[in-house]
């Protein structure tokens, strides 16, 4: 049964996989036909391979990153997180503060995730 604790544990796994910069481990947390859009206004990535490719491109475009779920909110099969990601590229740091909203299936695999952020949520150091 999908419980709030199970969803919170799945988010912890997601945070760990993102911070490990492992696109295959990230994609394995999703169902085969999952939909991912980051930000939500972009065309979605559909399926594990497309999700892995999205993260592989992000890894290739950055030197390091730190991803944090600053708050986790569950409701039935859905979980929303407030997140912060700081990426270092070319010696500069870009930070994005946003929200990701996930849906999960009975097995706890994510069936969708949409990230909500725009230029107002970016800062540079």
What keywords describe this structure?
7-stranded mixed β-sheet, alpha+beta, 125 residues, Nuclear Transport Factor 2, Chain: A, 7 strands
The total of beta strands comes to 7
Give the termini separation: 44 Å
CATH-defined topology: Nuclear Transport Factor 2, Chain: A
Biggest β-sheet strands, sense, barrel: 7 strands, mixed
CATH classification, class level: Alpha Beta
Give the name of the CATH architecture: Roll
**Stretches where pLDDT falls below 50 for ≥5 residues?**
none
- For the record, the count of structural domains works out to 1
Q: What is the CA-atom radius of gyration, in angstroms?
A: 14 Å
Q: Helix/strand-derived class?
A: alpha+beta
Approximate helicity band: 25-40%
Mean pLDDT: 97
| Percent in strands | over 45%
Q: Could you spell the SSE succession in H and E letters?
A: HHEEHEEEEE
How would you sum up this structure, described in words?
This protein is of the alpha+beta class and 125 residues long. It has one domain: Nuclear Transport Factor 2, Chain: A (Roll). The protein has three helices and seven strands. The termini are far apart.
Short description:
The chain is α+β, with helices and mostly antiparallel strands and 125 residues long. 27% of the residues lie in helices and 46% in strands. Strands 1, 2, 3, 4, 5, 6 and 7 form a seven-stranded mixed beta sheet that branches.
SSE map:
Elements: H1 4-19, H2 23-27, E1 30-37, E2 45-46, H3 48-60, E3 64-75, E4 78-89, E5 92-104, E6 110-116, E7 122-124
Parallel strand pairs: 1-6
Antiparallel strand pairs: 1-2, 3-4, 4-5, 5-6, 5-7
């Amino acid at each position: 049964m999908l419980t709030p604790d199970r969803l919170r544990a799945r988010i912890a796994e997601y945070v760990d996989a993102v911070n490990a910069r492992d696109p295959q481990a990230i994609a394995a947390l999703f169902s085969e036909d999952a939909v991912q859009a980051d930000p939500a206004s972009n065309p979605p990535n559909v399926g594990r391979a497309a999700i892995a490719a999205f993260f592989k491109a992000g890894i290739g475009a950055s030197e390091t990153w730190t991803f944090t779920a600053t708050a986790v909110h569950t409701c039935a099969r859905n979980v929303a997180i407030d997140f912060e990601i700081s990426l270092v590229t070319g010696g500069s740091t870009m930070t994005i503060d946003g929200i990701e909203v996930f849906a999960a299936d009975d097995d706890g695999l994510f069936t969708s995730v949409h990230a909500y952020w725009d230029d107002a949520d970016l800062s540079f150091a």
